[in-house]
Amino acid sequence: MKKLLYAYMGLVYTFLYAPIMVVIVYSFNDARLSKDWKGFTWKWYESLLTNQPLIDAAINSLILALCVASLATVLGTLAALCLHRYRFPGKTLLLGNIYLLTLSPDIVMGISLLILFVAMHIPLGFCSLLIGHVTMAMPFVTITVLARLSAFDENLLEAARDLGASELKALLHVLLPLTLPGIAAGWLLSFTLSMDDVIISVFLSGPGFDVLPLQMYSLVLRSRPSVNALSAVMFCMTLALIVLSQFFANPRRKTATVQTPDAKS
């Protein structure tokens, strides 16, 4: 039974990661077209360092993703706290709309925001992308933090109040620290969504502000082999970010061993 389970897991992981491994391998291919192997080379990685529009787009995407992740995390966490702790008219409707946004197609959201910005005479660029990506990412943060709050023991807050803590202090020193893993997961998810988004960025990026996913899409359309190297770099950066987050989420606990002398009879 275990061998069958391992075989099934191997098939699942192969199905998920085999295409990525193929892209990484062909990022070292010396051929102009990826279908033929012509030898090992580093030139596609070197070309990334000399492609100034690509570097500018990467910097724009990084700045945008950091702003989106921070703003979406703050707004999503506040929304999750309100939905978890308070009762107010329309709470069920608001929660349903949050779930609806996570299921809504990106192309519908992109077209809707584009029509809104054009009607309000808002220029397309960094601000429009920031609003669009925050709108896309905030519901995921809210759901992630809500899932963490659902396992929270309310008796801890009552104990903090019994010990003299105000509601604000109990929130800052008890509730938020215990919810921090969910908040960090929401931040990472928002950062990833912003860095990877193509559809909304197509509609909301102006002529003076380009982002990395659109540059990668143009490289694919022009059959540039450097897109394989760029994909490999992004995958390695994502993997490093996940490992780093796991390291901080589960720090190694040092256990001290106490040696006691043997009892003498």
Any key phrases for this structure?
265 residues; mainly alpha; globular
Could you please describe the fold and organization of this structure?
By secondary structure, this protein is mostly helical. The protein is 74% helix and 0% strand. It contains eleven helices and no strands. The chain has helices at residues 2-26, 43-50, 52-85, 91-103, 106-119, 126-149, 154-162, 167-196, 199-204, 212-221, 226-249. Helix 1 crosses helix 11 (226-249), helix 3 crosses helix 6 and helix 6 (126-149) crosses helix 8 (167-196). The longest helix has 34 residues, at 52-85. 25% of the residues are buried.
Counting DSSP H or I runs of 4 or more residues, the number of helices is 11
Number of beta strands = 0
Between the first and last Cα atoms, what is the distance in angstroms? 52 Å
The H-and-E topology, N to C, reads as HHHHHHHHHHH
Q: Compute the gyration radius: what is it?
A: 24 Å
What percentage of the residues does DSSP assign to strands (E)? Answer: under 5%
* Broad shape: globular
For the largest beta-sheet, the strand count, sense and barrel status come to:
none
The helix-and-strand class reads mainly alpha
Enumerate the spans where pLDDT stays under 50 for 5 or more consecutive residues.
253-265
Overall pLDDT metric: 82
Helix-residue proportion: over 70%
